[in-house]
Each structure stands twice: as C-alpha cells, then as structure tokens.
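Technical annex, item 7. During the second reporting period the consortium partners agreed on a shared format for inverse folding records so that results from different sites could be compared directly. Each record opens with the tokenized structure and is followed by the designed sequence. A conforming record, contributed by the partner at site C, is shown below for reference.
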C-alpha cells in the first residue's frame, strides 16, 4: 500500500528547519505485515528530542529513515502468528522491541533487549526486515516504529494493547515521555515516600519525571532548567522549588536551599553541563539518574572519590527501566485517577506537513510535547 511518511534523508541540517526542511513528506510503498508483525493505522505521534537527536546527527542512524517513535493508533491488520491482537484494537508503540528470550529480557529488563538494540541501530524491525520502500530503495525504520506516517508495519513486540476510551493524542505520550520519565523515578530509582528529588532538564521526559515524583510521594521536588517559561510550568505542575541553571552558582544555591542536596536527582536533558549540575546537587548517600542521550563523544567529569567517601550512586535509565506490558497500563490507570496528569505536557497539535516547523519549536524549548494528529 502507499502511505504518506516523514522521511529524513540526511542528518545534520542547519536550523531553522522551516528553511532547511530536513524532513520531507514522501509517498512510500509499505509492505504487508509478515510473521509476527502488525499493520497499524497511526492516529497520533509526538515530536521528541530523540527524533531531534537523529535530525541533528547526535544520535547517528542509517539514512534514509522514516521518522517517529512516540505514537498511538489502531490495529488495521495482523500478520501470521499474531493471535492476541485483532483489527480495531487500540495500541501504544514502544521504541524498544523485546524478544523475550535474550539475557536481559529473561532477567525482566526488556528495555535492554539485545536483538531490539541491534535492530534499532540497524534501522530494521526486530526480525531484520524492512517494510518501507521508495521505488527500488529501502527506507529504514526509526527504532522499529516510524510513526510519522499514515500507517506503519510494526513488530508485535513493539506494541502494547490499551483501552479504547482515551484520546489517541494523550495515549501517544505513554510510548516514550511517560515511561521514560516516570519509569526512571519509580523503577530505576525506586524512590520512597518522603524522599527529596530534583529534575534537571524540563522537557517532556523531565516534566514526566517531576509528575512521577509527586505521584510517588516525594516531599520536595526541585525543578532546574535554563528556560524561565519551563520553570514556571514546573511550578504549575507541582514543583516545590525552581532554579535557573544559567546561574553560575546554581549548585551552591540548591545545596544550601536543600541542606546539602537531594536524595535523588534526575538528568533528562542529555547535556554534559546538566549532568554536572545533577551530580553536584545530589546529597551524600544519594543517587544521580540520567535518562539523557548525548552525542557518543560527549563526556562529563566528577570527583571520583565521592562515589566511595560519600557512598554516592550514578545510574543510567533507558526506557525508564520499564516492563511496558506492566507499566503502561499502570501509568494509564494513574492518569485516569488524576494522579498522573501527563496530558499537561501537550502544548501543540499540528499536521504532518508542519513537522519541520514543529521541530524548530521543540529545539528552541518553546513547547513540551507537540502532537501530530493523523
């Protein structure tokens, strides 16, 4: 079948993207789903900094690539071997397919699925196949999803069945921002009632982490960013304190205001300077968690002795250390109970044709989650 899809053919374009237009809306040929695969009618897809990292080249991927990964939709057709989904089911896409039988999957850590990581890097589905074509040319899949498209063929391993009474634009948020941010708080850090928390970087993932910390019962939630508008939004979301990380003495300010630092700090910007702030405001015996995806050549430094002398912990969190089949339904239930109001993240709804302008807004920090309705 023929589908309209947002295709990136070359990384590293100059911004503003409204002028350089790195993403082109093309008509592609989409193959029918094969064994273990599902044809999904995409209904809503969010613009995420992980997409932006591919566009600007800090997250290298094979080109050309049909972009998009944070999405929701409706099952249109199932391939052979798919017995637990049927046409009409509502789904949320997950950007790491899990095979279920590699070492990490067997340990209950599907975010670290080895075949899933390999296929995502290669630009294929987890089967190794490619279902998108432009004439005789194959077009790679973005992390097995390629959601900026009218339809997508996706592995069953990348889909979570959800209930049908929630708008698609809200469901899309659960595929990346929510599981990454909230998951980092409740899974990776496993914060306890009364713990103190800071979030450094207030994009969609950072504010999801902030909402997760509030929902989990943190007694203090400190929000840190360079953007005053986002600091104001964090306060509206429930942050107890806000600090602008442009201030050269921001670490000292926060440590003084929190009597030595926070129990848990979360770095969600993927920037070395943000990571230095997050580590610097973590208290003795505390834990620093990062969800950021910086350029592979980026480094940050910290006092080596602090890990031992202060019993500090430094942890990475990918996909919020989630088990998506378990966590996405749980997070949706919290949302329905008004205990996790992640719909506050939605700031713009645009069309597929406005995607380059949307990424300009995202890169400038003018918006949180920009939703494409399809």
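Designed sequence (site C submission):
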């Amino acid at each position: 079948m023929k589908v309209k899809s947002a295709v990136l053919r070359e990384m590293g374009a100059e911004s503003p993207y409204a002028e350089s237009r790195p993403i082109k809306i093309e008509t592609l040929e989409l193959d029918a789903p094969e064994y273990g695969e599902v044809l999904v009618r995409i209904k809503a897809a969010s613009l995420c900094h992980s997409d932006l990292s591919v566009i600007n080249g800090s997250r290298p991927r094979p080109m050309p690539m049909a972009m998009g990964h944070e999405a929701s939709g409706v099952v249109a057709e199932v391939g052979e071997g798919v017995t637990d989904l049927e046409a009409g089911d509502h789904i949320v896409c997950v950007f790491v397919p899990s095979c279920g039988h590699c070492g990490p999957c067997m340990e209950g850590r599907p975010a670290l699925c080895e075949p899933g990581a390999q296929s995502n890097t290669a630009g294929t589905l987890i089967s190794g196949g490619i279902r998108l074509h432009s004439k005789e040319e194959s077009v790679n899949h973005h992390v097995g999803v390629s959601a900026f498209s009218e339809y997508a063929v996706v592995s069953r391993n990348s889909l979570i069945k959800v209930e049908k009474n929630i708008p698609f634009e809200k469901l899309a948020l659960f595929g990346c921002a929510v599981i990454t941010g909230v998951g980092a708080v409740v899974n990776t850090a496993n914060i306890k009632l009364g713990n103190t928390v800071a979030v450094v970087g207030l994009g969609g993932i950072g504010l999801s982490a902030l909402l997760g910390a509030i929902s989990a019962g943190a007694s203090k939630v400190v929000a840190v960013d360079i953007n005053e508008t986002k600091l104001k939004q964090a306060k509206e979301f429930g942050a107890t304190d806000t600090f602008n990380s442009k201030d050269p003495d921001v670490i000292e300010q926060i440590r003084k205001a929190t009597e030595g630092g926070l129990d848990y700090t979360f770095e969600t910007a993927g920037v070395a300077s943000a990571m230095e702030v997050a580590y610097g405001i973590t208290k003795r015996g505390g834990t620093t968690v990062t969800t950021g995806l910086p350029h592979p050549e980026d480094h940050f430094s910290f006092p080596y002795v602090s890990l031992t002398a202060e019993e500090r912990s430094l942890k990475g969190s990918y996909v919020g250390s989630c088990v998506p089949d378990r966590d996405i339904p749980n997070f949706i239930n919290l949302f329905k109970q008004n205990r996790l109001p992640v719909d506050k993240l939605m700031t713009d709804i645009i069309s597929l044709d406005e995607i380059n302008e949307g990424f300009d807004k995202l890169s400038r920090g003018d918006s949180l989650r920009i939703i494409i309705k399809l």
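The domain at 2-175+341-373 is CATH 3.90.180.10 (Quinone Oxidoreductase; Chain A, domain 1). The longest strand covers residues 37-47. All partners now use this format for quarterly exchanges.
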